[in-house]
Amino acid sequence: MKLKELGEFGLIDRIKSGVTAPDGMTGIGDDCAVIPQGDGIDLLVSTDMLVEGIHFILDDIKPYRLGWKSAAVNLSDIAAMGGLPVATFLSFALPESLDSKWTDEFFKGYNDISGRYHCTLLGGDTTASSDKVCISVTILGKCVSGKALLRSGAREGDKICVTGYLGDAGAGLKVILEGARRNSDAQALIAMHYQPIPRIEEGLKLAVAEGVHSMIDISDGIGSDLRHVLRASRKGAVVNVNKLPLSDELLRTCRRNGWDPLELAISGGEDYELLFTADPDAEIDIPHTVIGEITDTGRLDWLGTDRDFGGYHHF
Ligand code: ADP
Ligand code: MG
């Protein structure tokens, strides 16, 4: 079967079927692997790749921002477990035509966002590339043993919560791809696309909060990422689209360009906000918005719209 038909997640399922994680370890299927260290600490490991032409357009993105983003998307996977970042490793395939000023700027951005969390680059690999830039980052983090917030913990009746706004990064990408006018709103959206702030502090607070059951970071839009939680937890959900947190910048830019803010908020991706589920009466001590509820239907239903946003997902 061609990979196009199999799809990214079909391929990951196939890879997963060939391995069994050793007892006590969490392997393929969550934002990080979880590897108990036996001293009250669990090691968290994740890896993410950014490829020119797929994840970024080299002529459009400043190297500082690309460095920032390369670290930020990995830090976000540690945030998604409620973990503390420790260190990263970075592998690069670079065309010889690039300048060392470019790599200097790249590492300024990379180290600026990593440094906020005292997460240091400890190694990597560098090779030549015939054409495109390819960046692969592996991140290590840690959490208190057994306290990582997994995708599989959602319970029926849980409220579904998200941090921040949804759709801004997707709108920023649309501004870039469609050449829309770059006024101050559009610039702010582009910044959300290129320089996301990983929700590390929020993730750490959620990991120790009472009644929080599951978590994922929103890298592909809630339409996809909430489905990962539902599938891993074998649950369904109802989401009220009128509750989705939308920024003024997003709403104004959508009005100006005739774009659909709901489509961007649900399917836009790359917001790197956290989506978590918690007991309905759990006290959550970070800014967040409740967008729906976990059900036992096995379906994802959208309230407040006739549209399907990708439709059902049966487990
Ligand atoms: P995220 O969006 O959080 O980075 P992905 O959707 O990329 O997560 O991956 C989902 C899960 O599949 C993760 O647990 C990841 O480690 C695993 N995975 C993805 N690609 C591969 C691969 N090529 N080999 C093994 N595991 C993979
Ligand atoms: Mg993730």
From TrEMBL:
Cite the binding residues for Mg(2+) 1. Answer: 47-48, 125
Could you say which residues bind ATP here?
124-125, 151, 219
Q: What is its EC number?
A: 2.7.4.16
Q: Which residues form the PurM-like C-terminal domain?
A: 155-299
Q: Where does substrate bind?
A: 55, 270, 312
Residues binding Mg(2+) 2, per UniProt: 48, 77
For the ligand (Mg(2+) 3), the binding residues are 31, 77, 217
A Pfam family reported for this protein in Swiss-Prot or TrEMBL: AIRS_C
SUPFAM superfamilies in the record, alphabetically? Answer: PurM C-terminal domain-like, PurM N-terminal domain-like
Keywords annotated in UniProt = ATP-binding, Kinase, Magnesium, Metal-binding, Nucleotide-binding, Thiamine biosynthesis, Transferase
Pathway connected to this protein: Cofactor biosynthesis; thiamine diphosphate biosynthesis; thiamine diphosphate from thiamine phosphate: step 1/1
* The keyword Zinc-finger belongs to this UniProt entry's keyword annotation: no
Superkingdom classification of source: Bacteria
Coiled coil location: none
Function, as annotated, reads: Catalyzes the ATP-dependent phosphorylation of thiamine-monophosphate (TMP) to form thiamine-pyrophosphate (TPP), the active form of vitamin B1.
NCBIfam families hit by this protein: thiL
Q: Enumerate the HAMAP family for this protein.
A: TMP_kinase (MF_02128)
Q: What's the family?
A: Belongs to the thiamine-monophosphate kinase family.
Identification of the protein by name: Thiamine-monophosphate kinase
Gene behind this protein: thiL
